[in-house]
What does this fold into?
Amino acid sequence: MESLPASTIWVLIVFLFLTLPLRLLIYYAKSYRLVILSRQIADGVLLALTVIATLGAASSVFYQPLAPEDDIFAKYVFPASASFILSVPYFYILSYLVGRRPFYTKKHLANLDYFTVYLRSFNDERKGKKLKKRMTKALSEWFPVYAIGKPDEFMPPPGAKRIYVDEDWQEIVQDMIKRSQIILQRINTSENYLWEFEQCYKMQFFDKSVFWVDQIDEYRMFRGMIKRRFGLEFPQLEDRKCHVVFYRLPDLTFRIIYLTVKDDYERFKLLFRQDHQALFAENETYLYGRKEKLAQLLKFGYDSIIPREAQGWSWAAFWCPEYYLIFQHIKHRLWIFFGFTTLEGIIAGVDFSGESIFRLLIVRLLFAMVPMGRNGKKMVWLSHHWESIRYYQQEERMFSKAAVIMSIAYVLFWVIALITQTIVKYIN
It folds into this structure.
């Protein structure tokens, strides 16, 4: 596997070269459909390059001639099997290096029940990137944050999850405003945002809105415009060089928070949760709240934070514990994955005798297959923002089918290896 770093560099270079025409076409065409198609093509290219690079790095061991006293398992089968398993984290490492992030279409909206919608102008995307990440990260501690994606971006930027829609974006935004738990509004004076603000006003959703100001001068213009159009009186803000967050309290007054340092975001989260206790009490099961979930998990309080559909035995996690960890995006999956595979290698050894294979099967059964089968669903639920039970069940069914296929392929691989070893020994 000495050529793996070199193959990674080549994959990055080839991927950037192959996707350059797509990037240029998207930027000038500004088509949502083209964005979705190009992202699908880019994902396929990255996956294909990953497989080629992994197999190419692992194939270096096959250039060594096999001596009569050599063990075919130790020299050929074990490296090939290891490369087959390591290709999964390798794909995610490459995805991180090229900036690949999940993207969504309006079909995804059918499964959303618990989320935050982020309303802003596309012109504000490049302003205050660091503070934008902090704000979306703060709100995503409770519910996943979704925003409409720009039609000319090849890769979704960090922060809120992007949903790419066609010309019917106004209907999509109205639907998201109605169904969301929290509405984050980055105030500006563009016509599209003013239309979105008007929908929130007509539907009377200011009680779940968080208003975010990054330019005081523009906020003053906005304040005058809504007073003339709707007769609304928004609070007057101090002229400070910082971002400001405010939201309406149950007594119809406004709480104003000036975000000057990183700790102010923690203060904002604490105050907002206290002021909207009813919202969080109604949606306790679906809150991201990693600290709260971890505390409940340590107390074995599964029933209060994990719905019935996310409990019980998982055959997918039982048969494919390593792939279940990686594909289901369980927290700290790479550390668990590499720790367990290292333990397997130490216990099984490299001689691949019958005794070693038996020890390996026992270790997998006791320390991976049974624990993952029993707790896999719970670990997945605690590792994610789950927007709905339907979305969780859809993901679980999809992976279960993939686990069956991968299990059959892996078993066939070992059966063929055993048959090959027997034939080689018989010939020798």
Summary: DSSP finds 16 helices and eight strands in the chain. Residues 289-428 form one domain.
